[in-house]
Write a structure and sequence with these properties.
This protein is mostly helical. The chain has helices at 5-31, 37-49, 52-55, 59-73.
């Protein structure tokens, strides 16, 4: 059944709020430095699963942060 009137407006408002909350949480998570290799692995999976490289407004910034995490956490990493 289609939503109409106030019901539809309330639904759209709640959907927009939840989408905004999700985006803010995703950004907050991805810009934090990974404290461990396990955390870096989780961040990389999120980055890939949500197509953040090309589909997210902070994709380039997040990719750079992931590279910094790798440089800091991986023993074989070649510091630039």
């Amino acid at each position: 059944m289609a939503r109409t009137g106030d019901d539809s407006d309330a639904y759209e408002d709640e959907l927009a709020k939840l989408a905004s909350d999700h985006a803010e949480a995703l950004d907050a998570l991805m810009i934090l430095p990974a404290p461990s290799l396990a955390a870096l692995g989780k961040k990389l999976r999120i980055f890939a699963r949500h197509n953040l490289a090309s589909g997210w407004w902070r994709g380039e910034e997040i990719a750079a942060i992931l590279a910094c995490d790798a440089d800091r956490l991986l023993p074989w990493s070649d510091p630039a």
